[in-house]
Amino acid sequence: xxxxxxxxxxxxxxxxxxxxxxxxxxxxxxxxxxxxxxxxxxxxxxxxxxxxxxxxxxxxxxxxxxxxxxxxxxxxxxxxxxxxxxxxxxxxxxxxxxxxxxxxxxxxxxxxxxxxxxxxxxxxxxxxxxxxxxxxxxxxxxxxxxxxxxxxxxxxxxxxxxxxxxxxxxxxxxxxxxxxxxxxxxxxxxxxxxxxxxxxxxxxxxxxxxxxxxxxxxxxxxxxxxxxxxxxxxxxxxxxxxxxxxxxxxxx
Amino acid sequence: xxxxxxxxxxxxxxxxxxxxxxxxxxxxxxxxxxxxxxxxxxxxxxxxxxxxxxxxxxxxxxxxxxxxxxxxxxxxxxxxxxxxxxxxxxxxxxxxxxxxxxxxxxxxxxxxxxxxxxxxxxxxxxxxxxxxxxxxxxxxxxxxxxxxxxxxxxxxxxxxxxxxxxxxxxxxxxxxxxxxxxxxxxxxxxxxxxxxxxxxxxxxxxxxxxxxxxxxxxxxxxxxxxxxxxxxxxxxxxxxxxxxxxxxxxxx
Lengths: 252, 252
What we know:
Two copies of one chain form a homodimer.
Chain A: H1 2-20, H2 34-47, H3 62-70, H4 73-89, E1 100-104, H5 114-118, H6 129-137, H7 145-157, E2 160-168, H8 169-182, E3 190-194, H9 203-216, E4 220-226, E5 240-243
Parallel strand pairs in A: 1-2, 1-4, 2-3, 4-5
């Protein structure tokens, strides 16, 4: 009897520990802890473009963002946006003049820098241009599978897909091209990197300019997908924009 | 001994029930349940304008949204946006020509319809124009305290505050005016309701038109705050927009 009671007691203790020991976790009444709920507010404010020009993830949110990126919620958030994109896509009246276009950003839209940011405390460390360049030159960013699925569908459907990135044309063109290729991004119309002419310009201005040029060439931009608000603001935005989640960094 | 064991056993049972019985709750390992995490993705997608034109909250998210609105996270999300607004506000170089303007939406920006939506399953029921009109005519919407604080600060600082609402001018002007007054919204420059000329127009077009007119009068719109993306898209948006959370309904 004593033994049976000890088993029950130990089970109870383990559960209590599991529930109450986590600083960034959740509590048994279904609410989340103060730190976690604050970081959730911060993430929401970032995704809805209310917090702008931020340089680092608040340090208190390091493990919250780590959990978010690695434990499923990022993937679920991404999947829901992709569902919306597919629903929209299916209703587009495609012409057969070859001028139906779609724009995708590259970093953390087509291919992921999650491994890199893992080493940067998921964005709690400030932007490190040298470190990022070295990472990008390795050409080892994995595809974001849901977006690769979208890309493939777009190409198969007959869209001209333009990959527009703020990466430096001079130094990163070949590595980026190789990386996209080794991850299955094959069949796009053009990969557009930032040339000398756009150096120092904000991403909003640079990408607006590129989209304006594409429209000038006669393309109809049906969709525009990026993980940064700077991909989705400015001019010639396209018929519809979609914001993919990214709570790790902000590109002005 | 048997009695003591029963006490422990019952405690264990109660905890198990508390943890695992909630469809929308959280689990002991710190993750949230499938339903809850899906509704979190949905809410994020709504707030980042990825889900558009939705007519009702997904029924599976009823209690999730109820919890969100009533148990603190909505207030925390709102407070974080308000902090951003105040930080922005403090850096505005005010002139003394009396033309510095700020725009606030009314419903679920200045005053809350939470009590009403409580009776509409927090948005799982479809929009009920007759019911909403009856509710609005009662003039009993409580102020959203954080936004009343912003309003008061704006008026004190010398901004001309324009309250711009899609509510019908003919039938709801007096009730809205009274409601705002009884909740402390005193000292605004103008309350602008939807007149006959704008009936049937989308909120984006109607509100763009109003803002254009204000700019035509010479006002500089520094800030524009609303709970709907239709408050914050279109023309003459103002120098900066802020999206307040609202997962209960979508105004096209």
